[in-house]
Amino acid sequence: MNDLACSTFLIGGIFFALEARRELPMPYLTGMILMGVTAFISIIDLCLQRRQFKSRKLRKFILLTPDRKGKMQDPKLLLMLAAKEDEEERQRELEEKAKREAMDAGW
């Protein structure tokens, strides 16, 4: 989220800088170019981090509610179940990747 806000802010700054001045001196233009490069890098960083945020949910901060019998659930048990789900998802991804590599082995 931080990268998205950063890139939006930088692109907005470039737009504002273009609209604010009619004449662009060399240091001003250099600063705008560097702002554009920084915005581009933050967008690339956002794309690279997308895979990490895909399976991560705010499981640690889930409010624990009692079950139907009124008993509170064990938070450690819930974390272990969440870790097991993550591991199963990773295994599925590895299996899919292996299948794709096996099919593309002829190339």
Order of helices and strands: HHH
How many runs of DSSP E, i.e. beta strands?
0
Which outline best applies? Answer: elongated
The class by helix and strand makeup works out as mainly alpha
Alpha-carbon distance between the termini? 38 Å
- Biggest beta sheet attributes: none
Integer count of domains: 2
Which range does the strand content fall in? under 5%
Q: How many helices does DSSP assign?
A: 3
Rounded mean pLDDT is 79
Q: What is the helix content?
A: over 70%
Cα-based radius of gyration, to the nearest Å: 24 Å
Spans of 5+ residues with little confidence (pLDDT < 50)? none
The oligomeric state is single chain
What does this protein structure show overall?
The chain is 73% helix and 0% strand. The chain has 107 residues and is mainly alpha-helical. Helix 1 (2-20) packs antiparallel against helix 2. It is elongated and about 70 Å long. The relative contact order is 0.08. Residues 89-107 have a biased composition (Basic and acidic residues). The chain crosses the membrane at residues 27-48.
